[in-house]
Amino acid sequence: MNKIAASELILNKDGSIYHLNLLPENIAKTIIFVGDPDRVEKVTKYFDSVDFETQKREFKTQTGTYKGKRVTVISTGIGPDNIDIVLNELDALVNIDLKNRTVNNEHTSLDIIRIGTSGCLQSDIPVDNFLISSHAMGLDGMLHSYDCEHVCEKEIENAFMEYTGWSDKKANPYCVKNGEQLAKKLSSDQTYLGITATAPGFYGPQGRVLRLSLQDTDLNKKIDSFKYKNYRITNLEMETSAIYGLAKLLGHNAVSMNALIANRANGEFSNDPYKTVDRLIKYTLDKIVE
To answer: How far, in Å, CA of 165 to CA of 2, rounded?
Structure first.
């Protein structure tokens, strides 16, 4: 069996994976992603106990139990590039023998749940609600670095590019479904469902104008009004497409849970976004252990 070179699988002196600073025994099979390191403890404060924690750069990890179930919470930081690091290194922890640098014979699948904030694009979905991403529409191009065509929804991608008049100077959008069984477990009459668009930046890539002009001033309107069969793009953020795409490629189940703290169609912002996020945290934890 071929060994993975030290330049490709980078380990710390203690044998832990390079960026996350984790060993295989440090993580559970159910993993919650948050963006902000300060949000990790906003999740784990509800745990029965926390038995492990570490932090390296923006990647903070705590593992413990909630109502008897072992769960890991990791902060990813912002953007698809960070997700590329986190998901590949988590997969290495469960599917590569780090000592021998060889791929394990048996595949281990993780359940990965993003708990994040997002701005809603549709006027009929009020702020302070929860949304599950049925698909992710990646505007970031990150997944195209991999052999990914077999996990992408080509019909939705083509319809979106045609509808928006997508510039050929930008990376082609890619569309990936969620982990359907995990999404079913997390769904209820308290959740909306829609396609989440993932942008590679916060300002221009999401249509915000400060001092720079946009390549396509109407792109947000086109995104808002795009429909494919029963699907529409409901929100815009910066991580979900990379999570869905890499999870599918690596054989993991992923679902993005979004706290809608703004409605850009109505110009509204939540009066208490922290309360909304806290409600989503408790909702998600309880659904995990049902």
So the answer is: 45
* 233, 195 contact by CB (below 8 A): yes
Give the type of residue at 230: N
What does the angle CA 282 – CA 284 – CA 285 come to, to the nearest 5 degrees? 65
Q: What is the pTM of this model?
A: 0.96
Q: Are 116 and 257 in contact (CB under 8 A)?
A: yes
Q: What is the pLDDT of residues 28-46, one digit of tens each?
A: 999 999 999 999 999 999 9
Least Cα distance to 254 among 47, 139, 114 occurs for 114
Q: What is the DSSP letter of 113?
A: E
Whole-angstrom Cα distance, residue 37 to residue 59?
Answer: 7
Sign, CA torsion 144/183/181/76 = positive
- What burial letters (b/e) apply to 224-257, b meaning 16+ CB within 10 Å? bebebeebbbbbbbbbbbbbbbbbbbbebbbbbb
* Phi, psi angle pair for 172, to nearest 5°: -60, 135
pLDDT of residue 1: 72
> Tell me, what amino acid is at 36?
D
What φ, ψ does residue 278 adopt, rounded to 5°? -65, -40
Q: Smallest Cα–Cα separation from 43: which of 19, 23, 71? A: 71
Q: What confidence tens digit (pLDDT) does each residue in 154-179 have?
A: 999 999 999 999 999 999 999 999 99
What is the spatial distance between Cα 39 and Cα 73, in angstroms, rounded to a whole number?
Answer: 9
Q: What is the dihedral of CA 26, 31, 35, 39, to 10 degrees?
A: -80
Strand-strand pairing, 69-75 and 111-120: unpaired
Q: What is the dihedral of CA 158, 160, 166, 172, to 10 degrees?
A: -60
The token pair that represents 239 in the structure block: 């991580």
Q: In this predicted model, what pLDDT tens digit does every residue of 59-95 receive, in sequence order?
A: 999 999 999 999 999 999 999 999 999 999 999 999 9
